[in-house]
Design brief:
By secondary structure, the protein is of the alpha/beta class. The protein has 2 domains: 122 residues, NAD(P)-binding Rossmann-like Domain (Rossmann fold, 3-Layer(aba) Sandwich); 165 residues, 3-Layer(aba) Sandwich (Rossmann fold). The chain is 38% helix and 17% strand. It has 12 helices and 12 strands. It has a 7-stranded parallel sheet, sandwiched between helices. Helix 1 runs parallel beside helix 12 and helix 5 crosses helix 6. The longest helix has 21 residues. It is elongated and about 60 Å long. It starts with a strand and ends in a 9-residue tail after the last helix. The relative contact order is 0.15.
Length: 306
Amino acid sequence: MIILIATEKPFAAAAVSGMKEIAAKAGHEVRLLEKYGSKDELLAAVADVDALIVRSDKVTAEVIAAAKELKIVVRAGAGYDNIDLEACTARNIVAMNTPGQNANAVAELAIAMMIFMSRNQFTPGTGSEIKGKKLGIQAYGNVGKLVAAKAIGMGMEVMAFDPYVPAETMENDGVVPASSLKQMYRECNFISLHIPATPQTKGSIGYDLITQMPVGGCLLNTARKEVINEAELDKALTDRPDIRYITDIAADMQSELNEKYGKRVFATPKKMGAETAEANINAGLAAASQIVDFFATGNTKFKVNK
């Protein structure tokens, strides 16, 4: 089988080497398309491949149509909104992600973002400590659990809301289950978002929730920009001059937010959540291993399309 690693933003060399080794041991050929400059390059490269590994690259319906032999596509990371799942399903192509491989990197960034905002973005002036503060985690999955553990280790109280996770699971981790989102926003000094961008979650974080936060509250987004209702965020920041917002995914109106609210808002220059050597390697190796296992046994454990 031919496996194409198509990454406009390349994997680390160690990751590529490991992925090639995993594939070669199973008798598969690996091709590499890095830093490609146009969609046409990607369309040409997928023409005869059996498997595709991407990072944030867009696997659109057009890409799927061009990949006549494609059987599986794996997104090396947790989010998979860059893959057209309907197009994959229509062609009986398995789409997978690699959950948990970037989780620690994102969790560490969330903690760092809380400290960064608490210390006035490291500019002169008296800041505050996160010890003794209350953190609310929206979505208690791989990343949320790690954020909770690290925050508890730093002396924070932690609450979480996730309708798909039993309260007992949270309580066993020392986390207080929230009965509702509004309760969590109302009680927590920090809210950390870890929800995917789905039809149900897009634009779901808006004025009514954000303005529930206590005085000095700070909203952290290491998830997806689409979950934020930007117009309502803007209104909340105007009506509540004590509220702060920090994000790993710049808003469409980020320059306007920066101009209006100064150091109350911050966006990383580019998405940094998975930008560690360890996460890069872990996600790449997992993607290659999942493809090899799929071809060998038919394993679709991490399938994300129907």
